[in-house]
Amino acid sequence: MEPDLFCFFLSGEKKEVLPGSELWELPLSGKNTGFSSDTPSERKLQDAVITIGDYFLASCRFLSENNFSILKAGLEVVCKRSVLTGQIDRIVVFLEKHGAFYHPLKIQVVVHGFPECCFVLNGAVSKSGLSLLENEYKIISRLNKTHYVQRHLPMVFGVDVITTDKGRIGFFLGEWFDGYKEFHATQDHGIRQVVIWESDGKCHYISEVAAFPIYQEISRILTCYYDIETFDQIFPWHHAAGDFIVRQEAGKVHVRLISVRGYSPLTEFGADEKDKQEHILPSLLLFFLNLLLRMRLDRLNGTGQTVMLGKNMIKPVVEGFLHALDEKSAVCGFGNLRLIFIAFFQQFSLEQVMGIMENILESYQSNSEEIALIKENFESHCRTLHVIFSGF
After folding, report:
1. 174 in helix, strand or coil?
2. What is the pTM of this model?
3. Cα separations (Å) of 117 from 105, 127, 143, 160, 231?
4. Is residue 251 left, alpha or beta, with left meaning phi > 0 and alpha meaning psi from -120 to 50?
């Protein structure tokens, strides 16, 4: 590590974390949100041996290896011109938070003659996190190439695993979405709201109704990445995992997806071309119904009690889905997908819709709390959806 180049902070703290300090020696740990597949013993082992200081030093090794090649690749994109190593004046590393799989860092780079540049450095120390990290980097890279017209994912610039005397630490460098915030369902005195977390620790509260555009845009984004012909889709995802972030600007909502843990078909239709053609609409229906259920699930403040957003959230989700079909219609060559899908859905009675939804629910690998909540709201969910499509 070059001592004059790097400095380290915990997010929200003004005091620098120095080597040998109490904070430097603290174990790298975070609250388990229930999304990690590691065993408690694996988490305990990792947290016991790798300290915050170890993690900071590993991030320095990653950023500086091969003459800062990965960092300079990112800087070239952001600065829109090549950056020499000697032009890098300062690299400030902020430990942002502890997630289920990653411990993300904000990397602030001061380059001589350029505005300050920021990146996200996603890092993992657990077995499951390391496995996910390399796979996620590949998926995001691929999706950015195939969905370059409307890109909702961060650009990514490089991935590597650093071997230390305390274990392996993996990182990938990506685009930092400036001004975007994490958000979750929350509740105060029985009133359900949506909280947007500010970077300074403050919270901005909006009603569920005011949050409709956020969820509509999430629905549109996930449908945009759904492949009509191969049935590939982004999954798993969850609001509680903080997979989506939002920026509100001049009355408009901007949403980005920052994590892709998987991209493959969830349906088991035949693999040959003719069979796939016949199952385009049934597969799209299953994607839509699954999307609709999961769009309503969150945990209070991201880690608390599982909740289901109000049924008035269904219509914005439907609108986001149909909007994405409009966009696909222009490039897929299958005609007006909005009208085709609406007509297809309208063939089903309420009882048939409920039957399909029951089959979807049987295949859920969600926790028992989520399943119980879905069952509690199941009939009203299906009725509301059926009424919406009956009105088209």
Report:
1. strand
2. 0.91
3. 14, 31, 24, 21, 37
4. left
> What would the DSSP string read from start to end of 8-52?
EEETT--S---TTSTTTTSB------S---S-HHHHHHHHHH-BH
Q: b vs e for 221-239, b when ≥16 Cβ sit within 10 Å of the residue's Cβ? A: bbbbbbbbeebbbbbebbb
What average pLDDT values come out for the chain (392 residues) when binned by 10 residues?
A: 84 90 86 44 55 96 97 94 94 89 95 93 94 96 86 96 95 96 91 87 89 98 95 95 92 94 84 71 96 96 94 97 95 91 98 96 85 95 98 95
Edge-to-edge order in the sheet of strand 203-207: 203-207, 191-197, 181-188, 244-249, 252-257
Whether cis (ω within 30° of 0) applies to the bond prior to 236 is yes
CB atoms under 10 Å from CB of 264, counted, come to: 12
Domains of the chain: residue spans and CATH: 6-175 (3.30.200.20), 181-390 (no CATH)
Burial 46-85 (b: 16+ CB within 10 A, else e): bbeebbbbbbbbbbbebbbeeebebbbbbbeebbeeebee
Q: What's at 244, amino acid-wise?
A: F
Structural tokens at position 54 = 């170890």
Nearest to 346 by CA among 291, 388, 389: 389
The phi, psi pair for 117, rounded to 5°, reads -115, 145
Strands 88-95 and 6-10: parallel
SS3 state of residue 235:
coil
Tokens of 39: 């065993």
Q: Is-contact 81 145, C-beta < 8 A?
A: no
